[in-house]
Write a structure and sequence with these properties.
five-stranded mixed β-barrel; 10 helices; two-stranded antiparallel ribbon; alpha+beta
């Protein structure tokens, strides 16, 4: 049962994310636990009238047994039991938060294999050094706070779908340099790890100081420079990758101080935009009725999208 579906007197037993929790004093002087618990459908206030229970840590996952209760016209949970999640628990993370549709370890393996296959030694050294710098954070890190791929493991999801798109285009346009395009896809958003403060659930609390003062594009250029110096890679190859990072948003209005100035940079910009927009479209259309329109999508110029009924198309 999702929190959004809970009605008065409904029984709930399952796993939830702790958004906030603290002990408070009731009018009687007795302590109680006041919490905000959440799953992917939303959040709900929860009360536990046992003042001896310590508040769980914000951002943690807990197992809860509770009953739906209505107070001042709003649903809340009256918690009977609560405990921290344990290793033996089989928690379906996709029920708690938006998650990438593929296993993050398998996605990371795809990315590492693609980096290892880059034939140009300098491009491979820089790319692998930047992947090593990102480390295990890649397994859970989102690609955004609110926009496209704002999900657990979203950065890997964005990266792997772009690698597949690049692979398809390389078969159509053989004049493109495979290694340069592959490296650009892998590293173009890696500095988002510096830009945002995200926990292991893939939830972004805020943009970091680095993100607010520099942003992932400028930080990405700096990181490439440092990786090239550390590995002894060619400054000329590093410059190509720096341009790809600088130009991958296309125009200054979207944060790129330079437009793409060679084919691989142009293709990187195009597939980055395509992947982001299709993700936004799919998310919006998943909430629309067949034959109806979505809500306005801010990331798509406030367009309302039409969901074509399945029976209108032959697969």
């Amino acid at each position: 049962m999702l929190l959004a579906d809970i009605k008065r007197d409904d029984r709930f037993e399952g796993y939830l994310i702790v958004r906030a929790a603290e002990q408070r004093a009731a009018a009687s002087g007795k302590n109680y636990l006041d919490m905000t618990l959440a799953d992917r459908s939303g959040s709900i206030n929860a009360k536990m009238w046992d003042g001896t229970v310590q508040p769980p840590v914000a951002g943690s996952i807990v197992k809860v047994r509770a009953t739906g209760n209505e107070f001042n016209g709003r649903m809340q949970l009256r918690v009977e039991k609560i405990r921290a999640v344990e290793k033996r628990d089989d928690v379906d993370m996709s029920a708690l938060i938006p998650c990438a549709p593929e296993d993050p370890k398998k996605m990371l393996e795809q990315v590492v294999r693609a980096a290892d296959r880059i034939k140009d030694n300098d491009l491979r050294l820089i790319t692998c050094a930047l992947l090593d710098r990102a480390g295990d954070k890649l397994l859970t890190f989102p690609a955004a706070k609110q926009m496209h791929h704002a999900e657990r493991s979203g950065l890997l999801h964005h990266m792997t779908t772009m690698l597949r798109a690049a692979e398809a285009l390389l078969g159509v346009y053989p004049q493109l340099n495979r290694g340069l395009l592959t490296a650009g896809v892998i590293i173009h958003d890696l500095a988002k790890i510096d830009e945002m403060d995200a926990d292991t659930l893939g939830l972004v609390s805020d943009y970091s100081v680095d993100g607010k003062l520099l942003g992932h594009i400028v930080r990405g250029v700096v990181n490439i420079q440092q990786a090239a110096e550390k590995t002894g890679a060619s400054p000329a190859k590093a410059l190509l990758l720096q341009h790809m990072v600088l130009s991958h948003h296309g125009i200054a209005d979207y944060g790129s101080p330079m437009p793409p100035k060679f084919p691989e940079a142009e293709v990187l910009h195009m597939i980055d935009t395509l992947d982001a927009r299709l993700f936004e479209m799919n998310e919006a259309l998943s909430r629309a009725m067949p034959g109806g329109f979505s809500e306005k999508v801010w990331g798509l110029e406030n367009r309302q999208l039409y969901r074509i009924p399945d029976e209108d198309l032959t697969v």
